[in-house]
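Intended use. Records like the one below are meant for learning the mapping from a protein sequence to its folded structure. Do not use them to infer anything beyond what is encoded.
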Amino acid sequence: MEITDISVTKVSTDSWGEFVEFPLVTVMSKFDEYNNADGDNPQARRKWMGPVGDVVVEVETNAGITGVGVGNWATGSIETIVNETLSKLIVGEDPHERERLWDMMYRATIPFGRKGAAIEAISAVDLALWDIAGKEAEKPVYELLGGPVTDDIPCYASNLHPVDHEKLEEEALEYAEKGFETMKLRFLHGPEAGREGMKENEEIVKTVRDAVGDDIGIAGDAYMGWNVRYAKKMLKRLERYDMEWVEEPVIPDDIDGYAELRKASNVPISGGEHEFTRWGHKELLEREAVDILQPDVHRCGGLTELLKIDSMASARDVPVIPHSGTNPHLHFIAASTNAPMAEYFPIPEWYQERQGEQESTYADAIYANPPNAEDGSIPIPQSVGLSSEVNRDALEHYAVE
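Structure written out for the chain above:
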């Protein structure tokens, strides 16, 4: 089999609906113009996230099999890297030789890569190659990884944006009633909001804990919006709520800060969503910086690299809970004994009501068969390949020139 062509489609962040407008603390919240803690600046995240969210890469072969991979999100630069560098390396090559092709792509992009957009581009191509392998074998990719270790994948409800405390409480109860045993909330404030912001962050956690009781796991996402000093104080306030983890409390390059927080607090620390390749995650593990590792297969280097990351984490008894619950992640989790659950983005009832007659897009609009949780778990995918086929109508609608 031979690779004959590669095509790239950039997808607008409009496909994520209002998901990018909800109030929460982010890595940019320290700047007033990008802070939406009060919900009165809904364009704050759109200003710095850029117009392009996902990038769909399709790899064609002379066997009539086309593999689909998605990179996230790199503001469209994935297209340039695929077209000007990666395509020249892999067109004409055998798609089965994933390890060799990965190494070629990585080495060729070192001068402008190693992290960020170049690795996200490699991720998309690598996923497309795995998709080809599954389609050729007429099997789900997890069958190529040793077979499934479960029939159903537990997942946590990842939403709980604190638009107000009444909606937050209703949403938490809704998820508990739907069978989710773990849920993740977003914090509103970072250091710029001072002690009042700390109080409000704590009140968000208290609201959810009071709503669902002690038997539901609660995690919280700071999305890189804190610093070490602030996080230490915040984590101390949160210890009483028996949290499952606090995610990305500081920027990803502050590995010293991660390690310091993990040693200083009883609250488990998670991270890795914005880390790249086995080498980046190896440092997190060797420095004992996280209790839970959260790589993203669409960013970290694809499935070829995620398997290596999982092996390193498993050897250190650090669980891997990937960022986002896309179908490629489900194939990985289905075949791993070290990945206990998936992230899942349910659409809150209040959000659906606000949308009215408008069809809710949310975070999975471009996929033909997005994951669907029932009773807090997702059945393992049954379709061949990585189950990453796209909704062509949606892809055309949200495509960015």
